[in-house]
Structures are given as structure tokens and as C-alpha cells.
Amino acid sequence: MGKDIHAIAIHGGAGTILRSKMTEEKERDYREALETALDAGYLVLDQGGTSLDAVEKAVNALENCPLFNAGKGSVFNAKGQHEMDASIMDGHTLHAGAVAAVRNFKNPITLAHKVLVHSDHVLLVGEGAMEFAKPFDLEIETDEYFHVDHRYAQWQKIKGSDSFQLDHAKEDKKYLGTVGAVALDKHGNLAAATSTGGMTNKKFGRIGDSPLIGLGNYANNKTCAVSCTGSGEYLMRGVTAYDISCLMEYKGLSLDEAAKESVMNRLLALGGDGGVIAIDVKGNISMPFNCEGMYRGMRNSGGKEISIY
Amino acid sequence: MGKDIHAIAIHGGAGTILRSKMTEEKERDYREALETALDAGYLVLDQGGTSLDAVEKAVNALENCPLFNAGKGSVFNAKGQHEMDASIMDGHTLHAGAVAAVRNFKNPITLAHKVLVHSDHVLLVGEGAMEFAKPFDLEIETDEYFHVDHRYAQWQKIKGSDSFQLDHAKEDKKYLGTVGAVALDKHGNLAAATSTGGMTNKKFGRIGDSPLIGLGNYANNKTCAVSCTGSGEYLMRGVTAYDISCLMEYKGLSLDEAAKESVMNRLLALGGDGGVIAIDVKGNISMPFNCEGMYRGMRNSGGKEISIY
Questions:
Q1: Distance (Å) of CA A180 to CA A277, B47, B148
Q2: Number of separate domains in chain B
Q3: Is B23's Cβ below 8 Å from some Cβ in A?
Q4: Structural domain of residue A182, as residue ranges?
Q5: What is the dihedral sign for C-alpha A291, A294, A299, A304?
Q6: Of A33, A262, B16, B277, which is the most exposed, with the fewest CB atoms less than 10 Å away?
Q7: In a domain, B2, yes or no
Q8: How confident is the model at residue A172, as a pLDDT?
Q9: Residues A110, A178, A200, A240: which is the catalytic one?
Q10: Residue A167 CB partners (closer than 8 Å, separation 6+)
Q11: Does A128 touch chain B (CB under 8 A)?
Q12: Do B243 and A242 touch (CB under 8 A)?
């Protein structure tokens, strides 16, 4: 701990990620992608940038990678479309921006950041969010850009059925796809960002925890910044992101104690799988998950760590 | 306190409700409408029904009354349409159901209750929510049903501008319109329900706190049931409904202390106007608001109370 301390943590989703089913090549691809995102965010912090910009840049890198369920790698919904959700929060001002059910934006988290800065509102959905975006020079991509073969194959398997899947769940294998980042900048400010493509074959305009402040994403300089990943409905009912903040503020738990209590006890008691990445103003990082694996990484002045299991 | 204790509280929105601008007739209309809703919910409880059914019935009555910004009395958005949001939560199971940006449903809270019971999801939006509703026999109304003259006049005043209003804000008069109910049933279970027509002239698919679990609505038998009303974006950033629950669970505050801390201190510190109704498993009720007035009422075996200022 000291002056100018800065740190970042990221995740690329959690679930039944089994070592036995992972090839060496695939694992290397995931690790490289996580490192690229981690470094992109850390560079912003190291150069004195804000935690908001750092989490946006880190999430952009994950959104641009087809391996993760966000941005380019977003899953197909029941109509064969890609509908994405994202949210970002500033721990200094408690301002937040979020979008849900948006299409064709290359980087939904960048759109959410525009909502944070330029709107009196917090959450914009669907066509309305797209209309809001018009004055801004955001990158729009074609449907083809979002067509990733392994996502299409996942959808084809359950298309037309009533099933929906959290990303590429198959048989006993579940991967609950979301990406996120939390950071502390040199100015002492926290921020959190989360972005997702939702669930394969999802119907009925379902929205999960990712774009919802306090549920899938939260930041407050008094306590922590948190990004969640996992079974969204359980994270919503557990109000998991804000729960961790409250365990610190009202019960006096440390970041690690609070994150573990919320994920390993409270979320499990509801029946929910998942994990979180969390950071406090001292630069402490906690990344608990209650399932087999979570793609994750952290970097501070002491070095970096990337893990899956 | 004792066996078979049951109680209900309702609200019809909060804001700059000034006694000086209220006629006797108007005040009588509001009081009568509140009493009708209160009695409808209380009857369910008294007959041994569930708190979930009681809050639904109370909110139905408020939704069917043109005085409040929900259901029939919903305000006009920028397109001259009525887009409504609602959420309901079961304090016993922590199951929840919510809908946002739905049109033409006479009673959005009844649709939210269907989501709670019949869906694995928590939050459905727009067309998707309407598709989900198809198998259920829910009352659908024409656009004409939702055309209420004073709402139309409010919209005409700011139509085409960039302004938006929380219900019938005019000059210095702000009324932050939402309706809600919280209840404790004879089985010892809590429930909360909230329903709204949003903001006059709202654009960009804006969604406020009302349909969001933990933000505008929350219920948990361990702590309390809460329904919020006020400036939605501040209630979202404050995660107000769950904040009250956490102040009780983690800090050991009483229901009244927790509700007041959250509304009178924390929400105000963010700059937000509004109020909440809250109930705990002992049947204690707290209804703090940090603005001039809140349409509200409560009823238990000891009698009933209806208040505005």
C-alpha cells in the first residue's frame, strides 16, 4: 500500500471449466487473450489514467475476442441475433451507465460509458439505447461480425426448443459467460465494468444481472468495485455486487471476507453458480468463485497473475 | 405482535405535493383511491391469503385508478405511448419477477407475478415480455384506455423538447410517480410490489428503479419488504431497497432506523428525492420520505391510516 498504488483485475466468465476437457492450445489462447486485456487496462492506470477508462479498455479487449461471451463472441438468442448488455460505475461519484438488449455495437461497454457521462439516466434498453448513441461516434458492426462458428453451433443444437443456455452449457458442462474488469487508479478511485452477450437461445427479452447496478456490477470508493459472473438470476436475487459492499461497510468485513461470504455462502445458499472479481481502495483484490473455474487475471506493480481453475 | 399478525402498507408516489395547491375535492379523491387499494390488499391477508397476492391486489387497484402514474394513469413517453415497468418479490423464497417497457397490459404487476411463478428468469423487457405473456389470460387494454386527459396535457407541454418529467412535474412542483405495496401475511411471509408508468416524455428506452430487484423493490423474510418511489436514477445508484435490508441484517438497525438512514441520509446525500414504504416480520411499518409529500397508507388489525403530507 502506498501512494500512486494502482491495480486491475479482470474476468472472462465462470462455470464448469474442466481441466480434463481443455486442450493445451485452447488454454494458451485463453491465457493470451486475458493477458492482452489485463495489459490494456493496466497501461491506462500506469500512465495516470482513470479507473473508468482502464476498465473500459480491458473490457473492450475481451469484447473484441471471440473466445468470451461479450461483444464479438456474444451468443445467439432465440431469433439468431446478438443482444448484448453492459454496465459501468464510477466509485468516486457513484455515477453509473448501462445498456441492455443492444445490437451491433462493437463495444457495448463503451456505449454504457457514454450513458454514464452524457445522460441523466442510468439504464437504457433496446432501440432507445441505439437512438441515444447516434450523436456519438461509436463503432457499429454487421451481424456477420458477430457470427462466430462455435456460437452458431451451440445455438443450432437447442434452436427451436424451450431450452436456453448460459453461454456454451452442454451436458454437464456449463460456462457462464460474461466479461468484466475492476480497477483502482493512482488518484484513489475505483471503477467496475461488466459486459455480456447473455444466454444462448434466450427468449422473451430476458435481462440478467450484468447491466444492473448493484446486482452484476458496483463501485464505491468507500468499499469496493465488483464485477460478477455466473447464473444471472441468482446474482440478481442475491443483489450480489452491492451485498459485498454492504458486508464491508455495515459489517466491517475485509474485501476478501466480504467477497467470499457473498459468493461461497450467500449465492450458493440461493442455488447460484458463479464468481466475482473485487478490488478495494488499498489495491487488495479478491476473486472467489463457487464453481470449477473462472477465467481471471490481476495485475499491479508487483506483477501479474492469470488463472483459470 | 403475535400469531396471525398481518399488515399492509401502500404508496402512490412522492414529491413536491403542496397542501396549498391541493383542493379539498382532489385530496378526497386521492384518499378514497388509497383506501380502496389498502382495503383490497388487506382483505387478502385477513382471509389468510399470501402477502404476494395481497400486494398484487393492492397495486392492481392503484394501477386501475387514473390518479396514479401506473397502469391506467401512466404518463406519455416521447412517442406518445405508455410504457410500464413493474416488479414483485417473495420474501420467503427470494424469488422475483419483473417486466420493463411493456405496453397495453392493464396490470403490469400481474404480469410480473406471472414471471415470478412461471419463468426461470427475473426480468423480461418489451416485446419479449409480451410474447412470454401469451399463454396467460391477462387483461389487455387499448391505447385509448390509457389516454388520460391530464397526462396528455402534461406531455403536450414538453413534447418535442429534450425535457423529461417525473410524472406531472411542473414549475416547482414535482410528483415522482410510482405505486407500490408491502405486506406481511398470517404465515409470516413478506412481499413487495412496485409498478410505474415512468417519466413523461421519456426517451431512449430509459428504465428506472421500479422493475429492478434490490433497487426499487425488495423483500426478504430475514429483514423487510420495501417499495421505493422517487427520482429513479438516485434510487438505482443508492441500491436503496436492498440498502435498507443490509442496514438491518449487517448493522443491526431496526426497520425504522434503517429506512430513515437510507432515505433521509444516504439518498439525500446522492441528491435524490423520494421515499419508501417498508415492513418487517413483526408487522412494524416505516414510511419515510425526504420531500414534501408521499401518498401513503397502512392497515393492520389496529386500524388504518392514510396520509399525504
A1: 8, 48, 44
A2: 1
A3: no
A4: 7-301
A5: positive
A6: B16
A7: no
A8: 41
A9: A178
A10: A13, A15, A69, A75, A154, A174, A175, A176, A177, A197, A199, A200
A11: yes
A12: yes
